[in-house]
Specification:
The complex is a heterodimer of chains A (404) and B (292). By secondary structure, chain A is α/β, with parallel strands linked by helices. Chain A is built from 14 helices and 15 strands. Chain B has 11 helices and 4 strands; from the N terminus they run ααββααββααααααα. Chain B has a two-stranded antiparallel sheet with strand order 1-2. The chains are: A alpha/beta (404), B mainly alpha (292).
């Protein structure tokens, strides 16, 4: 608490010396953006350095610096550990004068950062984490959740596949909170759409070999095998499913959380035919292509994932709100972000709900066959668009205390 | 019952990897007394060399594929091992085991970090070679041909290694040099060079396992870090330094793990450590180890 008082005092003193007129209320004359991400482990490619790049591109494109505002960046690796992530967030807020934290792939770290942000009255733009609790039970007036969440993934993929005739399911679930939540939400979506779950198996996280589990899935005779896991667990299970002839044998795979970089890592030979839900694909229209053409050369050729796109769009909207408000007071900025309609080149027009959920359409995509892909990173066919008002959990169902 | 056969076979296949990796560790520990924590990183390097050969190296129109990687990767990675042994490890032989362990552990972190920086973390695609694609229906399960190849190749490698070390003249020199280097040297045998080459060979075994793993697991900078702990448990259960012990334990634990995945999947990543605890309680030197 002392540190907070000190920094508030510092802010106040700094504030008195600020000369500019247009941004008199922006603390210490600088908007400081902290990108907290996984810089060294399994989520590095889908977020990581690409998220820092996306945030920088957003600042550049907003043109805010030409209008007299100064923007600074910080970035750090949370190592997927909630204690490490919390310590960084506290230091950033207390001593480094960070105004907004962006990204934070990993729901465990994100839930901790969301709470700290609320206590300190700053802003958290959650893009990388999946847990729908961020805008549900654990919602906060200082957090905006962009890009995707577990409810949306489960509902999008589960409902669409069941309605297309994939009405019997078997789950291979990563045995921890995220995997179990994904299985639970998907089961609900499948049952609601008239399907049936025949069984499932709980695999330990970070498992190398899925052949035992795939064999059980094969003998269950379910039409669809749902992969309620993420990262390396997903790619390993898809790769080995191809090896065991699962798709050739007539069963199909449903990835419940798959990113563009996962498909790149698998190669189309292994990933072809996989169906899942995304909220962004680089090759959707001229604007997304233009963004990707700028992005990829600066991130080792990696084309932007929905997390990168979400970081870009959320920072852009945040800066818009700061300018409109002429202040970077966290709680007020988030309120302003919810008030202003969103409009950016990557997600189009949209809005932010009172619970902090950013609303936009979602897309059911299918991975192309190798023959259909004309260039590197040409991976998806968009099979269906889930309209914005159906893509996310209804406001009333989340249990968020901000919803009255 | 049919499902059980399938799980047994799959356990044996995973056991083949454990056996090959723990064999390399056992050779290095048994003959050199080094606890080689870079083994996982060297396994990963084997897979990456295979990927690089396939994607980046062309000789005219000829593409260096899987088969040439089986030979080239162990040599390349083994050579890196030799350099590490000559420049760093050889200085630590007179000190406690712990120093070697710390050095190799640190090296493993550095190597993994460098690869992650260069290749990212989500892994690289690697196809099963066309000759080994497809599978046969055994009635009780669908057996991919590649997995059958893994089990056969690993058995050949393991048994050859055991034979060379335990039954040939070269092997007897090696074992003698471990017991009493000064005496063996007095007979005119270049012991330091023999030790260097043995280390290179053990590292090469890890790389070979890496090449064989590339088509079925992700080629990923962290692939070895995930596996190395399990493999160390295998070596400890088998008895540090026992060649045949590590081979048998590798296959045996693969089967135990496979059965656990069927009956109680949640415990499948801990069952090996439970076995380790039980074995250490009753036989502290491991199942096949000798008390020193």
């Amino acid at each position: 608490m002392n540190a907070l008082k000190q920094s508030l005092l510092a802010l106040a003193i700094a504030g008195t010396f600020v000369a500019g007129a247009a941004h008199a209320q922006v603390s210490d004359n600088v908007i400081k953006i902290g990108v907290l991400s996984d810089m060294s482990s399994l989520y590095t490619d889908l977020a990581g350095a690409g998220s820092v790049l996306a945030a920088k591109m957003a600042v550049e494109d907003s043109g805010i610096e030409k209008r007299g505002y100064k923007v600074e960046f910080a970035s750090a690796d949370h190592q997927n550990k909630p204690d490490v992530g919390s310590a960084i967030a506290r230091q950033w807020y207390d001593t480094d004068k960070v105004d907004v934290i962006v990204d934070v792939p990993n729901s465990g770290v994100a839930l901790a950062v969301s709470q700290i942000t609320k206590d300190k009255g700053r802003v958290f733009l959650a893009v990388g984490p999946g847990s729908s609790d961020l805008t549900g039970k654990a919602c906060s007036p200082n957090t905006v959740h962009w890009a995707y969440d577990t409810w949306m993934l489960a509902n999008g993929t589960g409902t669409a596949i069941t309605k297309q005739g994939g009405d019997t399911w078997f789950f291979i679930t990563a045995d921890y909170a995220f995997g179990q939540a994904l299985e639970r939400d998907t089961t609900a979506a499948v049952t609601k759409a008239g399907g049936k779950v025949l069984g499932g198996v709980r695999a330990p996280i970070n498992n190398q070999d899925f052949s035992s589990f795939l064999l059980q899935a094969q003998s269950s005779k379910a039409k669809v095998i749902g992969l309620a896991n993420a990262g390396g667990d997903t790619t390993n299970s898809i790769k080995q499913a191809a090896e065991f002839g699962i798709v050739k044998g007539g069963q199909s795979l449903a990835g419940l959380l798959v990113f563009l970089t996962d498909i790149h890592a698998l190669g189309l030979n292994n990933a072809q035919g996989l169906i899942f839900t995304e909220t962004f694909y680089w090759d959707m229209n001229d604007q997304t292509r233009a963004f990707s053409n700028r992005f990829a050369p600066q991130d080792k050729g990696i084309h932007p994932t929905m997390v990168h796109a979400g970081v870009y769009a959320s920072v852009l909207h945040y800066l818009k709100a700061v300018e409109a408000l002429k202040s970077d007071d966290g709680t007020k900025v988030v309120a302003k972000m919810k008030e202003l309609p969103t409009d950016d080149p990557l997600f189009g027009k949209g809005s932010i709900r009172v619970d902090g959920r950013k609303i936009h359409p979602a897309y059911l995509v299918e991975v192309k066959k190798p023959a259909e892909s004309k260039a590197p990173w040409d991976y998806y066919k968009i099979r269906a668009t889930i309209p914005a008002d159906q893509a996310f959990r209804p406001l009333a169902d989340g249990g968020c205390s901000l919803v009255k | 019952m049919q499902a059980l056969f399938g799980q047994l076979l799959i356990g044996l296949i995973n056991g083949a990897f454990y056996a090959m990796l723990s064999l390399g560790l056992a050779v290095i520990f048994g003959l050199l007394n080094i606890i080689n924590f870079t083994h996982g990183a060297q396994y990963m390097m084997g897979a990456f060399v295979a990927w690089l050969l396939l994607n980046k190296v062309h000789i005219g129109d000829w593409q260096l594929g899987y088969w040439s990687a089986l030979v080239i990767a162990p040599i390349v990675v083994g050579a890196v091992g030799v350099i590490i042994e000559r420049t760093m490890l050889s200085r630590l032989y007179k000190l406690d085991h712990l120093y070697g362990l710390l050095l190799t552990f640190g090296l493993a972190l550095v190597i993994q970090g460098l690869f992650r920086n260069e290749f990212g973390s989500s892994g690289l695609p690697y196809q099963i070679p066309s000759l080994l694609q497809g599978g046969v229906n055994l009635g009780f399960m669908f057996l991919p041909i590649y997995r059958a190849w893994v089990i056969v190749a690993s058995l050949i490698v393991c048994l050859t290694t055991w034979y060379v070390i335990e039954r040939t003249k070269l092997g007897s020199y090696l074992r003698a040099a471990t017991e009493n280097p000064a005496l063996v040297q007095a007979f005119g045998i270049n012991v330091p060079r023999m030790i260097t080459l043995t280390f290179g060979f053990g590292v090469g075994l890890a790389a070979l396992a890496g090449v064989m793993a590339a088509p079925i697991y992700q080629v990923n900078p962290l692939m070895g870090a995930d596996l190395i702990i399990v493999v160390f448990a295998v070596v400890v259960i088998g008895g540090m330094g026992s060649i045949m012990g590590s081979i048998l334990t590798g296959f045996g634990l693969g089967v135990v793990e496979g059965l656990t995945k069927y009956f109680y999947p949640e415990a499948s990543n801990t069952v090996i450590f439970v076995v380790m605890v039980i074995v250490l309680m009753f036989r502290p030197a491991g199942l096949f180890g000798r008390e020193r």
